[in-house]
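FW: tagging you since you asked about this chain on Friday. Here's the raw sequence from the shared folder, copied in full. Didn't touch anything.
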Amino acid sequence: MFHLTLFGGTEGEMAVEGTTALTLFGGTELRLPTLAQRLAHRKARAATPRGAFHRWFGLDRNLVVTLFGGTELQRPTLAQEYAALRQSIESGVLTREDVERHVEAVLRSGTENEEYTSIAIFGACTRSDPEPKEEKAALESTREAGLLDADLVRRMTTWIGAPWTLRMRGVASLV
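HL: got it, structure written out here
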């Protein structure tokens, strides 16, 4: 997928692999993939490993290039992470064993930097967590919709502002 922003502002989603985002004299907001997407991708990639050519030239990673502008990579909310992981298990894309087997491999590096390369020249590329207010609103609206019970919301609220790896281990343990 190719995402281009010229002299303006856009937003979109970044796939786990194969996204190239080019921002020239503008601003781009990209939503990073959920843990469920990463786990499903890792499971599929384990079945068909990539060769050295892909690794050497970075073809197995996303590329974010920012020239004279700004790119913000936004992590999903806890509610989005939980919903995506739960849906992946219920649909059969992932099993609970897949989650247990692959989650530590995804979290081992501590960040998702291994999945994208960013280049910024006279600009900035930043990664951000959702604001606590946004996290709480997302959890509350998910509870009101009946997708989460009050106990899960209470437990997930304690992870707001925690490091990414702790948040994802917590979400994986709930599913």
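FW: The chain has a mean pLDDT of 85.
HL: agreed, and Helices lie at 35-47, 52-56, 78-91, 96-107, 132-144, 150-157, 164-174.
FW: great, closing this out.
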